[in-house]
Write a structure and sequence with these properties.
This protein has about 500 residues and is an alpha/beta fold. It has 12 helices and 22 strands.
């Protein structure tokens, strides 16, 4: 259904052979034509202006290549140098995704679940996020308590039982019960805030700090009673943004004090101390300042598993600030980094095939992983033909869109770009060193728990790039197609 085999793989194979022969002539005695390396490389490709979509395009073999020369472009891989362990890769299970899902016929519902969560026929998502209370990608604002119920006696998730809870349970089942789920609030109930509004920012009133901490515990326990295990939580989605949708402002000092005085102790008291607390959950621009303010306080840091971040600092065409991710990892090596949200905005149905949608994912995922990130979470896994539903018209793209008028599913290229990571790099994998010798290629690499090495190579240029996959004086020649992403699995 998703992965297409094409005869054009012969073209790639011939190009690889030609390039290998040319390289051997240039290198002379440095290349041994005898393919003595015992390992085989399976190469999966997605490329613009082609039918390649996570397609097994060719199988490579290694030749001897002790010392590459400058004219031989290489992707160097060193599995002896190991770094962070992967938690997982996935996307958010929002109200919008759930509502769209249940507007579709059963066969399309099954296809979506298989496409995302099946490791063989799909892309094997293993990480998920969902919202506490409503968010912009809900059909309207809602909470789980009645107004002014400080003791949370009226707490109920009845709203979520219609769509979101059964949707999440379908995803967990489709992932063979191996789905790591974290939860995030966009806003406390309006009566807990100084602007008396779930939307438009505002701040948590100090007299409701304990009630709000209790709210997280209530939510986690209630979801778990309904068959949905919760791994962790973020303190506040986008805490420095006053949005026209559900939002609440926390400075770094606010968040630090809330965690150490209320949220951390409350979860511990409620026997939920194993739930992973993630701070920040906003863009890379202020990432270091926020992390340092919070994590330098040992009383707060004791409760914190890691720091979450988004990618919207480049929303207006700026440069992604990957160095800030690296700075946090270098400064706080005992804490984890997790990408908690990203999407392409300004949805237009006639632009769902725009190749830049996927390339943004590939660039961010490679750089974030190379800078120490352990988990990577896309935003909505499914949206409708409008880029919603969204109660404030903040429409965006998802990897899969469903035209609810016809039941047709539209797979954007971002689905395949994410799949080049999530399908092949499995939870528990260790990142290893990978490095490209030319800037036309970017790369990351991991070694899975089963010992297989996975190398992702992306080419966002307009040109073919012949290169060698080089490891321990052995090299496998291949060609990177223009505007492509490739996963090479060394078996």
């Amino acid at each position: 259904m998703i992965f297409v085999m094409k005869k054009s793989i012969l073209v790639l194979m011939l190009l690889s052979i030609i390039f290998s022969t040319q390289a051997q002539k240039k290198q002379g005695s440095s290349v041994n034509l005898k393919q003595s390396a015992p390992k085989v490389v399976k190469l999966y490709t997605t490329a613009d202006n082609s039918n390649f979509r996570l397609t097994l395009a060719e199988t490579l073999s290694f030749v001897n290549l002790e010392q590459p020369i400058e004219t031989q472009i290489c992707v160097f891989v060193d599995p002896t140098k190991k770094f962070q362990t992967l938690l997982g890769i996935g996307g958010a299970l929002t109200d919008a995704s759930a509502e769209t899902f249940y507007k579709l016929p059963k066969d399309k519902q099954d296809e979506i679940m298989r496409a995302y969560y099946d490791k063989e026929d799909g892309i094997g998502y293993s990480l998920a996020r969902t919202n506490i209370n409503s968010c912009d990608f809900s059909s309207g604002s809602y909470t789980y308590v009645e107004d002014n119920d400080k003791d949370l006696k009226t707490f109920s998730i009845q709203h979520d039982l219609q769509y979101k809870v059964p949707f999440i349970k379908r995803a967990i089942s489709a992932a063979s019960n191996h789905l790591t789920l974290f939860v995030s609030p966009w806003s406390p109930p309006a009566w807990m805030k100084d602007n008396n509004d779930m939307l438009h920012g505002g701040k948590l009133k100090s007299e409701y700090a304990q009630s709000w901490a209790n709210y997280y515990a209530k939510f986690i326990k209630t979801y778990e009673l309904n068959g949905i295990p919760i791994w962790g939580l973020t303190v506040q989605n986008e805490p420095m943004a006053k949005q026209k949708w559900e939002s609440c402002l926390f400075t770094a000092a606010d968040e630090k004090n809330f965690v150490k005085k209320f949220l951390g102790p409350t979860l511990k008291k409620e026997q939920l101390g194993d739930k992973k607390i993630i701070v920040w959950d906003h863009n890379r621009d202020l990432l270091y300042q926020q992390a340092s303010e919070i994590l330098n306080d040992k009383d707060a840091a004791q409760y914190i598993w890691g720091v979450g971040f988004h990618w919207y600092e480049d929303w207006s065409g700026g440069v992604p600030m990957f160095d800030n991710v690296k700075s946090v990892k270098e400064s706080f090596p005992d804490k984890n980094l997790i990408f908690t949200e990203g999407c392409n905005g300004n949805f237009k149905l006639d632009s769902v095939s725009n190749w830049k949608l996927g390339e943004r994912y590939g660039m961010s995922m490679i750089n974030d992983l190379n800078n120490g990130t352990v988990g990577w979470t896309d935003w909505n896994i499914l949206l409708d033909e409008t880029g919603g539903p969204n109660h404030v018209k903040n429409f965006c793209y998802a990897p899969i869109h469903a035209d609810t008028r016809t039941g047709k599913l539209i797979y954007t290229n971002s689905f395949y770009y994410i799949g080049h990571f999530s399908k092949f790099i499995r939870p528990g994998a260790k990142r290893i060193t990978s490095s490209a010798s030319k800037s036309s290629l970017i790369t990351t690499a991991f070694q899975n728990p089963d010992g297989k090495i996975v190398v992702v190579v992306m080419n966002s240029s307009d040109k073919k790039v012949p290169y060698f996959l080089w490891m321990a004086n052995k090299a496998a020649p291949t060609v990177s197609m223009p505007h492509s992403i490739t996963t090479l699995v060394i078996e």
